[in-house]
Amino acid sequence: MRFRVRTWAAVAAGIAMTMTPTFGDEGMWLFNNVPKKLLKEKYGFEPTDAWLDHLQKASVRFNSGGSGSFVSANGLVMTNHHVGADDLQKLSTKEKDYLKDGFHAKTPAEEIKCKALELNCLQNIKDVTADVNAAVKDGMPPAEAFKARQGKIAEIEKAGADEAKGVRADVVTLYAGGAYHLYTYKKYTDIRLVFAPEKAVAFFGGDPDNFEYPRFCLDMCFFRVYENDQPLKCEHYLKWSAGGAKDGELTFVSGHPGRTNRQNTMAELEYLRDTGYPFLMQRLYRMEVNIGSWVARSEDNRQKGEDELFGIQNSRKARIGGLGGLLDPSIMARKAAEEKRLKDFIAANADKVPAEAAKAFETIAAGQQKRVAYIKEATLLEGGAAFNSQLFGIARTLLRYTEEKAKSPRERLPEFGDARLGSLKQGLFSDEPIHDDFEILKLADGLTLFATTMGADHELVKQVLAGKSPKERAYELVSGTKVKDVAARKAMFEKGADEADPMVAVAKLVDGPARAIRKKAETEIDEPRRQAMAALAKARFALDGTNTYPDATFTLRLAFGPVKGYTEAGKAVPPFTEMGGLYERSKEQGNKYPFELPKRWEEKKQSLDLKTPFNFVSTADIIGGNSGSPVVNQKGEVVGLIFDGNIQSLVLDFVYTEEQARAVSVDSRAMVESLRKVYDAGDLANELEGKK
Amino acid sequence: MRFRVRTWAAVAAGIAMTMTPTFGDEGMWLFNNVPKKLLKEKYGFEPTDAWLDHLQKASVRFNSGGSGSFVSANGLVMTNHHVGADDLQKLSTKEKDYLKDGFHAKTPAEEIKCKALELNCLQNIKDVTADVNAAVKDGMPPAEAFKARQGKIAEIEKAGADEAKGVRADVVTLYAGGAYHLYTYKKYTDIRLVFAPEKAVAFFGGDPDNFEYPRFCLDMCFFRVYENDQPLKCEHYLKWSAGGAKDGELTFVSGHPGRTNRQNTMAELEYLRDTGYPFLMQRLYRMEVNIGSWVARSEDNRQKGEDELFGIQNSRKARIGGLGGLLDPSIMARKAAEEKRLKDFIAANADKVPAEAAKAFETIAAGQQKRVAYIKEATLLEGGAAFNSQLFGIARTLLRYTEEKAKSPRERLPEFGDARLGSLKQGLFSDEPIHDDFEILKLADGLTLFATTMGADHELVKQVLAGKSPKERAYELVSGTKVKDVAARKAMFEKGADEADPMVAVAKLVDGPARAIRKKAETEIDEPRRQAMAALAKARFALDGTNTYPDATFTLRLAFGPVKGYTEAGKAVPPFTEMGGLYERSKEQGNKYPFELPKRWEEKKQSLDLKTPFNFVSTADIIGGNSGSPVVNQKGEVVGLIFDGNIQSLVLDFVYTEEQARAVSVDSRAMVESLRKVYDAGDLANELEGKK
To answer: Which 3-state string (H, E, C) describes B432-490?
Structure first.
């Protein structure tokens, strides 16, 4: 897996919860509920509060969808090349392709400021469950309950945030409504690019080797956080391990797993298996083909579309793996047995569980039936799949902002809450390039999907297409809109969206139905589910206690497990690969794309220690969003950098298994070795190793 | 377009007819109904019967899905590289990759015999409409009418065929039932490979340049027909033009367009637009992604799957173009106006048209509603999409043959008619390699599609998967079946399919539902449609006369039109490209796949006349299946070789337009120039030019 979160990958899935007894090294643990006892019993190591606090504050979240960590006192941040890819692409020009050729700032002055990149560093966690729940009165109808809760959450977030001081506050819904925690972040927005290797070695093996192991990827990238135009002085940063990790050594992963569905009910898993995943995958397949064939037409197209294509391919491969798990009767039988255990407990313990728990499964199942009925329209209209383009997204944000800002904070759509405005503006006013031809390609395909899904004679389809074919209409909208221009966006943000603009007009045309389907989904499916899930959460606490972890929510979690190989088709797969293996794999694939090596790597081969550990696997419980997470040893020192899971890990969305599922990391030793000997980046290596 | 017919590409489409007044150079004319008068009036050239007879008998059809022609007295056959690709791949070994590296038999002894390749050469056309229609009595229920007609057709075909003499006889349904003609072919089965260039130059630009113009493809391939182990002595073969074609010169194309839908009713076009095409394209997208990513994993995979991948990509691009046409309101308006004209005529002329014509549109529309309801199950089960693999196809053929051979010829499924048995056996007993890993990949994906389309809890899905995941089950079936082994196939063919074989058992399991949905489609949709179309055909004859052409049926047709450029986005696109352009396009694309040139082409550049015309466009009315068709001048001499259509030609499925739509050919001069100067194949060039 290229372990990033992609927003559109989430469309088909529901949020989930988990609290059953854990298996082996299972667990994406909250930093305020780490299983210290379990760790001590199993590994003889008990992290202290100071150890955890340091690791937490050295960890960062990339708003572009990934994880990272501070690795020097001067604000140096380590993440994956594929997490930085968006920014590498945005910073590239016709002359300089940093994504492809890499980048190296030899002095601070050469570090380049990223566009619209925001990092969040978690400072504090506060349980606000009681406060949020108090806003919802008994007997409130779902729509009312939803609004009351959202209003309370917006209020808490606003009180916790401080834009001037760069403080961001998010209320995180845990256990799908079983708990609410307020996460307060330090927000950084002046992020500069320091170093990236060539894509060919960072993503060596490309889509064919993605999710496979053994692997040979230098999937790393370094940024630096600035404040007041100076490198950030860091109190909490991770030191570099002198010796790296050994086979069998316990390691920890601190990062932001995006989403898991482990506590979904059977009705939800069946929905995903029969409807959600197949529908999402149809879109991934079509986008991969359309963008892929366009990218192949020229170098120029490649530069514009390659990163988006990689994201789609990655998601497609992950979903194929996940669907494979859902279609595996043995996995479904395990999930059914878990559900039966909880149902039996609820039936036998009416006194210990909330009254709602008894009908919770039914309520959720009824919601899934509605989801089947709504998913297509919701994806097309509210999800924006029918208008797949950046310009439509911008136009709609301007339109909705104009409407939402007139409302009281409690009444607004959550993404327009006061606490989110800073981030919203940063995204909206970014001057990253938007390419007309790429926009037309995607929009035309979106409109085609719209017409063929709803039927070309559907009234809304006809209004949107306005008598044109999808291709002609896409051309007309992209060429005609003014929202390409940042100044025009700023003007509309201040004075209101211009409904004479053709793209804004289309956003307006579909906004009524889009909001309506969203509201239906929220009130008829999500809110009843949230209440049912909260009841089930309490039942699970009664059954198994509270020493558990919730499903992933793209917030900071701690996972752990030893470096450990596995057995596949009767053959032992060792935990480490070596740098020499990179050259061998390239040779056996004829040195051809995506297995070709950058020239520099060919030239510097002689000077490298080919025995240097390159990638390794561990049993840590991770998922998309963990990309770029640091892997640390018991001393809290960096030994690796998460960048993938193996193909057997693709079922981790639904169940943890440590038989074969593995997290895949870049070894810290390979990072330093290549910085020193391939890239002539000794200063950077010194900074990592604390020798500066 | 890589202009081949792919059998599975036909699943979603209905057969069609056409007879409206033609536009410009419109027309895929029957050889027994060539518009001599129109040609004389417009171009001052009137082909004689002898001219037509010669061209017809020099034309051949490839059973692998393409066209070709005899081009020497010694049985030399010219076609496209992409028509020969299947065979190039089948003949390749781990050591010799003829598809990639090309092939050149310097002596007859080096010519290699193809596996399961059959060529058909049309000898005679006989109108059997009255005979076929007489079998269907007034008032027969559809199922009965269908069976009676099929029985009569089988009887006529059997009487016309002579397996011992290599005579094949097919009754061709024209005008969707307006006429039936008996086509008698000479069948050739000893076909040997003579020459193929490297794929990199034959399919230069790959999928990105496919359907684009200007182009630079040497898409040619030569075979030789043998009889009694000797090269065939040809009476009818095409001579080579000394000077090639000039801009504006009238040319003719003799080939086998596969299928058009020009006379579909609006209800049918709407079905294709809203259901048929979108559903087919979903499958194409998923197959392209699954096979494409697998092919990219290794050289070995590439060799096994590349040709199938190209076919899918080609079909995908063609369907995107076709769907674009259906979603274009101006094209639909033109079709609606045509339909209104016919409806008005029928309403006003009850005395001149059959009574059935009045309700024909309604009958057809009702059938389309049923098609919407049946298409998924029909595609999965009878179309075999749920079991996408060669081995399933073989197992089912063995199973059905066992059942069908016990029936009287009239009762059999048409593909098991006596006249088809020879071709059936040739395919079934071919020893072309079948790769377990590729089969498992495709079958697992088919089973996944099956489970996600019908629902994993569907009874038949559960029976087919037998408690396994799709991947495990595919592995089990492919590893367990004996039908991989040709000897086992022969034994089952003689003694009956072995239902203990796991793949045969699966075929058996689904055969009841598969046959049932097929029968429903045939009796509830196809047969009423055939009768309605026959009535409409008569109404159209009454309205416009009989000097028209039927929709394409993968039988021999004559198209014509001058060599002619066009204007695109205000820019003139000249009709010819030159050999020098090949080098320029390669350079501008960084000489990278799929724009890299074979080494030989780099080395021989200096010796080539770079001004030699390479590819050219003409207005001839062609479609998939025309691949490999010869382009001849008024003297009947070869001036080119059809291999593609431009992107604007993709609407030709529904409407002819000569504004921008163009057929794309390899120029005869480039063929000879490259044979002589790049390939050191002077003997072959001499044979083409009649200098041998």
So the answer is: CCCCHHHHHHHHHHHHHHHHHHHCCCCHHHHHHHCCCCHHHHHHHHHHHCCCCCHHHHH
